[in-house]
Amino acid sequence: MGPAQDDLVEEQNERLAQELAGKVSRLKNLAFEIEHETKDQNKFLSGMVDDFDSSHSLLGTSMGRVKNILTMGSSNRKTMCYIGFLIFAFFIFIYYTSSFFSRK
């Protein structure tokens, strides 16, 4: 090999090394972005776990109260029927209201 070929090979090696350094830099940036996104998602999921725990305890307490009301006697059953009817009527009202506004 002559000096011209050595220079050509050296230039190719330098060009390939620069391309490789660019690819490594892009991969490094991508890894940092993935790390940042993963940390954000972990924070979000942790918050969701806390929210679910609080809603679980709230629902458990509410269900306990409903069971107490149902087991107290016939006068409370009548009240529960009225409450159930009102809740049903409320949902029907919401349904018709939302369907009315969605048509406009």
From TrEMBL:
SMART domains: t_SNARE. It comes from the Eukaryota. Keywords: Golgi apparatus, Membrane, Protein transport, Transmembrane, Transmembrane helix, Transport. InterPro entries: BET1_SNARE, T_SNARE_dom. It is found in: Endomembrane system; Golgi apparatus membrane. Gene3D superfamilies: 1.20.5.110. It is a single-pass type IV membrane protein. The chain crosses the membrane at residues 79-98. Its main location: membrane. Residues 7-69 form the T-SNARE coiled-coil homology domain. CDD domains: SNARE_Bet1. This is t-SNARE coiled-coil homology domain-containing protein. It comes from Daphnia magna.
